[in-house]
Amino acid sequence: QVRLQQWGTGLLKPSETLSLTCRVYDGSFSGYLWSWVRQSPGQGLEWIGQIDQSGFTSYSPSLASRVTISIDRSRIQFFLKMNSATAADTATYFCARAREYGGSRHTHYFDPWGHGTLVTVSS
Amino acid sequence: SSELTQEPAVAVALGQTVRITCHGDSLRTDYVSWYQKKTGQAPLLVMYAGTFRPSGIPERFSGSDSGSTALLTITGAQAEDEADYYCNTRDSSGDHVVFGGGTRVTVL
After folding, report:
1. Extended strands (E) in chain B
2. What is the pLDDT along chain A (123 residues), one digit of tens a residue?
3. Nearest partner of B14 among B58, B80, B71, judged by Cα
C-alpha cells in the first residue's frame, strides 16, 4: 500500500521561500501525477500544482508565478517551492498522488494523501 | 471563485439520508471525485469516477451524476460521517484541477 510522508519548514518570515518534500513509500512514480494541495485556516482545499514522472508540470494560475514543483526519481521524492511567501500562504500543505485517465469522460482523483504540514508565515 | 459549486452546509438526522451536490460545466466532460475532510486529518477519497467507491469506504456512500451536476449520497448517516466534503475535477480548460468550496455535513 503506497504511502506518502512529507516534511518541511513550518515557520517562515514574509518574503522567504516555502520548501516542502514528499517521499513515496512502496510505490513508483510511473503512471501518476504527484500533487500539492493546501488548506488555509477556515478555508477550503486549493490545488497548487502537479508533476508527472517526466517532469511535466501544471500549476494553479493564481500561484504559477511563485511555485515550482520538481521530482527526484532516484529518491522517489517530489518537492514544492513557493517563493515570496506572505501571510496569505499560511496553510496546511498536503502532498498527494493523483490518477488521471481518459475515456468517454475524463477522470482525475487524489489518493493517497500525505498527513499534511502546517506552514505559518509570520514576521 | 470556484468553477465547482457546492452548498455550504447541510444537516441530517442520525440514520437518515443526506445528498451533497456539486455543480459545474466541467462535469459534462469529466467525472467527479469526492473527499471527506475532518479537522486535523488528511482528505480521504470516498468516491471517484462519479460512482466508484474505494476499498474501505462504507457502502452507505454512493455517487451519481447527470449533466452538470454530481451527487454524493450518504444513506443512513452515522456520527462519524460528520465532516466537510469536497468535490473535485478539472477546470474548463482541462489543464488545471479545481475543488468545490466544500459542504459541511452535520449529523444531528
Report:
1. 5-6, 9-12, 18-23, 33-37, 44-47, 61-66, 69-74, 83-90, 97-99, 103-107
2. 899 999 999 999 999 999 999 999 988 888 999 999 999 999 999 999 999 999 999 999 999 999 999 999 888 999 999 999 999 999 999 999 999 988 888 899 999 999 999 999 999
3. B80
What's the gap between Cα B15 and its chain centre?
A: 19
> Which tens digits make up the pLDDT trace of B2-34?
689 999 999 999 999 999 999 999 999 999 999
A59: how many CB neighbours lie within 10 A of its CB? 20
Strands B33-37 and B44-47: antiparallel
End-to-end CA gap in chain A: 40
Positive or negative torsion for Cα A43, B54, A115, A73: negative
Residues from B in contact with A at Cβ < 8 Å: 2, 29-31, 33, 35, 37, 42-45, 48-50, 54, 84, 86, 88-90, 94-102
CA distance B75 to chain A (A): 23
Cα–Cα dist A119/A11, whole Å: 6
Residues of B with Cβ-Cβ distance to A111 under 8 angstroms? 45, 48, 54
Report d(CA A115, CA A95) in Å as an integer: 8
- Check if the beta carbon of residue B31 is closer than 8 Å to that of residue B50: yes
In the block, cell 516555502 appears at: A18
C-alpha to C-alpha distance for B66 and A3, rounded to whole angstroms: 34
